[in-house]
Amino acid sequence: MTLEVEAGEFVSILGPSGSGKTTLLTMIAGFETPSAGRIVIGGRDVTQLPPNRRDIGMVFQRYALFPHMTVAENIAFPLKMRRLPRNERERKVAETLELVQLDDLARRYPHQLSGGQQQRVAVARAIVFEPPVLLMDEPLGALDKKLRETMQLEIKQLQQRLGATVIYVTHDQEEALTMSDRVAVMAAGEIAQVGSPASLYRQPQTAFVADFIGRMSFAEGIYLGLHEGFHAVRLGETVVLQASSVNGTIRPGARLKLAMRPEKLCLTARGKGGRNVIPGTLEASVFTGACELHLVRAETDGRPLIQIQTSVDTKPAGLDAGARVDIVAHEDSLHVFERQGS
User: Fold this and answer.
1) What three-state secondary structure class fits 211?
2) Does position 20 have pLDDT exceeding 60, yes or no?
């Protein structure tokens, strides 16, 4: 698959450990040579060019700041390597320090800074020479959760002010969805799907993408074919559901995986759900703040554990652990994939 990134776009490369995210980034940077294909930046084929001739900015997870240099000297380093005159270096460093809100820390050394401040210095050093592309390899991985969330917004706002083109590697799905214009999901060295955060969440094209992006519950069944305009899916001996669409072409009789988002499901007492229901037993309800997460053991093949998310105010009364319940699934809330290897 060809991945094209537009000028000024923020694209995240998302995937589990070992999926090839960092390898892809290092090939773009020039630290590794691809075995096939080309890397083109601004219309120029850079596949065989060394890293120092690609003019790319890069921010690493560990920041890689020079401990013996001040903040200003760290930021000035790439300008010094490009032999810019001293007065021009000082001007650019001052502008960049102001941009990342570190102008009052210019004379400090890295060990005198917090993690968030060090991260800002690393970003400033990467953007000070105005590269056409900025590569970021899990730059927030070393920060605690609260600071990480703050820095996500800061990086996104900075990218928008600069109009910079950013390729950002992360294994954190929430981070990718929060920051990106588009996300490329990788699996086993290949790009599984590329799209906006909303399209990946709402319209996953594979079971892997459905499982990796957000919470998702799965059940296995058999595809029965079209019936009255809907796709009929049988789970176990007695449960038949209707779905609005399927992914790809599935033959009647094929084994499938049915994926369901917790927030798209409803929970009722047994027999109160009407149509398109999965019977089960409520095993637990977990309070998470703004909502409650209910864990239901479905009475279908494999007895999968299905998650249902409800607001605290709309939790059905009288449903405690051990209660026999129905999971109500609207036709539009079901994602149907053919089971691989069946």
Assistant:
1) helix
2) yes
